[in-house]
Write a structure and sequence with these properties.
Length: 541
């Protein structure tokens, strides 16, 4: 009996166990209540049941809009696949489950599509030029919903511009554009323009909610604040090196043109850098130097100037005789001397033979009108200042015909027959005159007898008496002088010599006095009844 009762108890327990394992009809949607989905992604909604052997499923939207997805039913669950998710899937989706056609359950999930797929795109229209307006454009591609979009434009950490689209009612993805115009300055180079886009959707958890893009500014500007520095300074000594550096502010780097202006010339230097170097300066390097800076992007030009004065001892730049260093007597002659230095030099122009200054200080030209042979010789120019002096020499060669022709007879006392007589002819001229001697014949003709300055007659005889002519000649003229040798007859006294009376005369001026003297001597001899020696007369012309 007890055995039967034990079997009955076990059966009851089994029945109770079975009854306890049977679950009630339930359903759920995964994900539950609210889901944020990226537009373009795939979203699967799953409707699960428990406690129902043969459930039936149905999907619909809250307002019976198209599902925008594909339904797939299985034994105990159903899926709604949205591939891809789009803005049309922005609904509350309801899943209805009927169990054995008796019991029905329904749950819903809110699908919130969004699109924030990429970082903003920054564009800066036109080349940035300092001081001129520039426009920054920020594009945020394929945003949804745009009424949650906020955009900031920043320069480094400074907010240039802020814009939101909270009032925007777009129902599809759109590329939103924010523009801003500003005036860049030179100090903006290297700074970053940043576009910050934020998609602010309340109670939605997704990442990223903020996207940024940056672009460095490269503002073109200048040239500006251009200056020239000179090393070792604005007044270097002659022979020193000189470096002129043109300093400017410009982006992109400018083209530099160096110009030099002076009283005499204009020289242009093109360089690929900002330094103009002169290894050894000279006085003619003095002048106004101009650095011209050209920005080919901004099309702007700026100039800076510096006045360079080269200092040093004078340098004689010109010492000349015009029309030539060799001139003919009577020509007009100009002697020119010029020098350069800083400070300006004192110039002394003089003939070396007399050390006489020929002009005032700093004279550039001295005129010798109708030059004479006395003006010939060596001239010197002296230029001096506090740093030293310089001198130069030049020779003026004056060509002229024979002058001051003279005859000298030796001995000058009374001569005796048989003695030696020396006659010397001198004359000045440039070039030196050629001297020749002629003797007058009884016929009146002249016979060339000797070509030298000195004529010597040895063992003087009566046939040597007569008129002797000296001729001085060069290419610029000739001059003649004469001398006459006289002697009278011998006396009867055997021991007395015939005196020689020498009279000298020039052809034009002394002939008459000489003849008068001879007549006088002859008469005296006859009166006295004897001959006497007559002192020779010396004639110097």
């Amino acid at each position: 009996m007890f055995k039967e009762m034990g079997r009955t108890s076990q059966a009851v327990l089994v029945i109770l166990c079975v009854l306890r394992t049977v679950k009630a009809f339930e359903m759920e949607i995964i994900p539950a209540k609210r889901i944020v989905a990226q537009i373009g992604d795939t979203l699967i909604l799953t409707c699960n049941t428990t406690g129902c052997a043969s459930p039936s499923f149905s999907w619909r939207t809250h307002l019976d809009n198209p599902l925008g997805g594909k339904v797939s039913n299985h034994r105990t669950y159903s899926t709604l696949t949205m591939n891809p998710v789009s803005s049309v899937n922005s609904h509350a989706y309801l899943c209805t489950v009927t169990c054995d056609e008796k019991e029905k359950k329904e749950k819903q999930v809110q699908v919130e599509p969004y699109s924030f797929p990429s970082d903003p795109i920054i564009e800066i229209r036109s080349s940035l030029v300092a001081g001129e307006p520039a426009t920054v454009i920020c594009q945020i591609p394929d945003v949804y919903p745009s009424n949650g979009l906020e955009v900031l434009l920043k320069k480094d950490e400074y907010v240039l511009h802020e814009k939101n689209f909270f009032e925007d009612g777009s129902t599809n993805t759109e590329t939103k554009i924010v523009t801003y115009t500003f005036h860049p300055v030179a100090e903006d180079i290297g700074k970053e323009i940043t576009c910050v886009a934020r998609l602010l959707i309340p109670d939605m958890e997704f990442e990223p909610k903020e996207r940024t893009s940056s672009q460095k500014l490269n503002a073109n500007f200048g040239p500006q604040n251009t200056i020239i520095t000179a090393s070792p300074g604005n007044s270097p000594m002659e022979g020193d090196s000189l470096n002129l550096t043109c300093v400017t502010q410009s982006n992109p780097p400018p083209q530099i043109v160096w110009n030099k202006y002076s009283a005499e010339e204009s020289i242009q230097h093109l360089t690929n850098n900002n330094v103009l170097s002169i290894p050894h300066v000279h006085f003619n390097d003095s002048g106004l130097y101009i650095c011209e800076v050209i920005n080919l992007v901004t099309n702007k030009i700026e100039k800076a100037t510096v006045d360079i004065i080269i200092q040093g001892a004078p340098v004689i730049t010109k010492f000349s005789i015009e029309p030539s260093t060799t001139v003919q007597e009577g020509e007009n002659v100009s002697i020119q001397c010029s020098a350069e230095s800083s400070p300006p030099p004192k110039i002394i122009l003089r003939r070396k033979s007399d050390n006489a200054d020929m002009g005032p200080d700093s004279a550039r030209s001295i005129l010798l009108p109708s030059v004479t042979f006395q003006n010939g010789g060596d001239y010197e120019c002296i230029a001096e200042n506090k740093f030293g002096n310089s001198r130069s020499e030049i020779t003026l060669n004056v060509k002229y015909g024979p002058k001051n022709t003279m005859i000298t007879v030796i001995p000058t006392a009374a001569l005796k027959e048989g003695e030696t007589v020396t006659m010397k002819c001198t004359s000045s001229g440039n070039p030196a005159p050629v001297i020749s001697w002629k003797k007058k014949k009884a016929t009146g003709e002249s016979e060339k007898i000797f070509r030298n300055a000195t004529l010597t007659i040895q063992n003087l005889k009566s046939q040597d008496l007569g008129l002797y002519e000296c001729e001085a000649y060069n290419p610029f003229g000739k001059e003649e002088k004469s001398v006459k040798l006289h002697v009278q007859a011998r006396l009867e006294e055997p021991d007395q010599m015939i005196p020689l009376i020498i009279a000298f005369s020039s052809v034009a001026a002394v002939a008459v006095p000489a003849v008068a003297i001879l007549i006088y001597v002859s008469r005296q001899a006859k009166i006295n009844g004897s001959y006497s020696l007559v002192k020779a007369l010396r004639l110097k012309v």
